[in-house]
Amino acid sequence: MFLWSASLIATTLIGGLVPLFVGKSHRIQHGFVAIATGLFLGIVFLHLLPEALVPASGGLPTPWPGALVLTGVLALYVVENLVLPGDARNDSHVALGWSSFVGLSVHAFASGLGLAAVRHDPDVAGVLFLSIVAHKAAEGFSLSAVFRLSDQGTRRIVMLVALFALATPAGLVLGVKLLEFLTSTGAQAVTALAAGTFLYVSLGDLLPEVFHGREDRALRLALLVIGILASTALHTFGA
Question: How far is CA 175 from CA 19, 58, 182, 183, 216, in A?
């Protein structure tokens, strides 16, 4: 379990360092955000929503999965517009960064819980672990890219990405401790909440940010599609 946690943390940090040291211009930063948006859209529509709404076996009765997705959307809206400090709400880039942080962290924690639940099955656990690792670099990259837009200092962004990197190991450790209480419906509920937060961030924050200016729209659209394709490849790899 220690090696799993160390690999997850290291992979997340490596992905998060890329936007910090590869180009610092406004144009390049928005290019990174366009890729990150594609990754987010792929994660929510190709990975989270299918798992939340149509679990492999059993699962929550209708309409609970959809209600939990809606709860995730509304909860993140409340955090962004009512809970965050006034200066963060007034700066759309700051609000975007914190919304992304919350959404990614919920998803990462849920991934750790899922890994804990299957850790005694080497075949299933190995595939799931490789899938999570494959996503960690992309998620660290995405989080770092959106925080970069809000002019956060490099040290602060590294600290925030490092804090996010602990979410999946925390879910793994807690899942092991509470394994007897961890059910498939519980995992589905957490996934549904994560899907709602991702849905809000992707459509409510990231897409408007990518296309808020008129310059380089064709390039940003191409980078968005590249992000979606990358997310599709990650999903296929982990399937």
Answer: 32, 20, 7, 10, 45
Distances from the Cα of 33 to the Cαs of 60, 76, 139, in angstroms? 35, 20, 12
Cα dihedral angle (96, 99, 103, 106), rounded to 10 degrees?
Answer: 150
| Lowest model confidence (mean pLDDT) among 26-30, 84-88, 220-224 | 84-88
Q: Assess contact for 154 and 20: CB atoms under 8 A.
A: yes
Residue 214 Cα to chain centre, angstroms: 27
CA distance 192 to 49: 7
| Model confidence pLDDT, tens digit, residues 66-125 | 999 999 888 878 876 776 555 544 456 677 777 778 777 877 887 777 677 656 667 556
pTM beyond 0.70, yes or no: no
* C-beta separation of 139 from 47 below 8 A: no
Q: Where are the domains of the chain?
A: 2-238
User: Using CA atoms, how far apart are residues 146 and 159, in angstroms rounded to an integer?
Assistant: 14
Residue type, 121: D
Nearest to 192 by CA among 61, 16, 31: 61
Quote the CA–CA distance of 87 and 215 in Å, as a whole number: 27
Q: Indicate the residue type of 48.
A: L
What pLDDT digit, counting tens, does each position of 122-169 carry? Answer: 755 665 677 677 678 878 888 888 888 777 788 889 999 999 999 989
